[in-house]
Amino acid sequence: MAVSINQVIAFSTVARTGSFAEAAIQLHLSQPALSIAIKNLEEALGGKLLARTTRSVALTPEGKAFYPVARRLLSDWEQSLQDVRNHFTLRRGKLDIAAMPTYTINRLPKILASFHQQYKDIHVTVHDVIAESVVDMVREGRCELGVTFEPSDAPDLAFEALFKDRFIAILPSKHPLLAKSQLRWSDLLAYPHISLQRPAGTRALIDQALAAKDLVLTPAFESHQLVSVGRMVSEGLGLSVVPSTSQNQMEEMGLHCRAISSPIITHQLGIIKRRQQELSVAAQAMEVLVRAIDI
Asked: End of a domain among 61, 88, 115?
């Protein structure tokens, strides 16, 4: 027979007050209902916990042994309820979010500062990973939210676009192309190129757009990280093309950023989450801030 929390509360109240009548008043129960609760608890545990006389109620030896257990159970129960309340009121909790390096470096810090100012007791872990890994981490439930490019063939994920990102060229100081007022892809492909490695989604997007114009990108150097690409460009190993979200980061390295035409290549960047999974209150609050700052 299962023991209910209400039975434990009933026993603890009778043991504390030493009176069925007083306990019934405090619990807003009739004395018969209280007696039934105690009887069911005793049957579930296998023996008498209370010895009743016409004038008083006393704990049996087993009742004395169970009373501190009951108090501890009720304390743990209340603490557990409070923990849940704290999660709902954002006074406690943990949030994992995955985002691409260009986003975590350039836009996410401002969002995190605003989030922390409002919800100081929520611990946030940022997973700074490539676009494809953002999708994997959200899909596998390791993160509730992700910020990445729109994934292809992902019916299990919901994508909400935040903004359209355009690819731009990055060049070192004194590069000959800086003298041109407008850059075309055909101009860029005449020089050594540093590119992200496949299977990066941005690399595939660029390759497809160039193929449609009968252009081919043959990198001299490749890397998995945009920061490494930027460093190689700054060392004069070649030029590169990066998402415009990384422009501030590239300019901090001393690089020059220029728009590219023919073709203009863009892609959507936004929030991803699992379709069949309700977000935690903390994740919902973070989603609101991401939307607000990136509108």
From this structure: 88
Q: 240, 244, 292: which is closest to 269 by C-alpha?
A: 244
What span, in angstroms and rounded, lies between the C-alpha atoms of 264 and 288?
31
What stretch of H or E contains 214? Answer: none
- Whether 162 contacts 103, CB under 8 Å: no
DSSP β-ladder status, 239-243 and 193-196: parallel
* 37 and 106 both lie in a single domain: no
Sole residue written with tokens 């990102």: 165
Residue among 175, 168, 211 at smallest CA distance from 192: 175
- Asked if 239 and 217 touch (Cβ cutoff 8 Å), the reply is no
For residue 75, what are the contacts with CB-CB under 8 A and spacing of at least 6? Answer: none
Per-residue pLDDT tens digits for 231-262: 999 999 999 999 898 898 899 999 999 999 88
Q: How many helices (H) and strands (E) does the chain have?
A: 12, 12
Residue 221: strand pairing partners: 194
Q: Give the CATH number, domain containing residue 47.
A: 1.10.10.10
CATH code (residue 285):
3.40.190.10
* pTM of the model as a whole: 0.65
Look at residues 245, 166, 177 and name the one whose alpha carbon lies nearest to residue 206: 166
Q: CB under 8 Å to 95, separation ≥6 — which residues?
A: 122, 123, 124, 125, 144, 145, 280, 282, 283, 286
Pairwise CA distance, residues 156 & 225, whole Å = 27
Q: pLDDT tens, 21-57?
A: 888 989 899 989 999 999 998 988 999 999 887 677 8
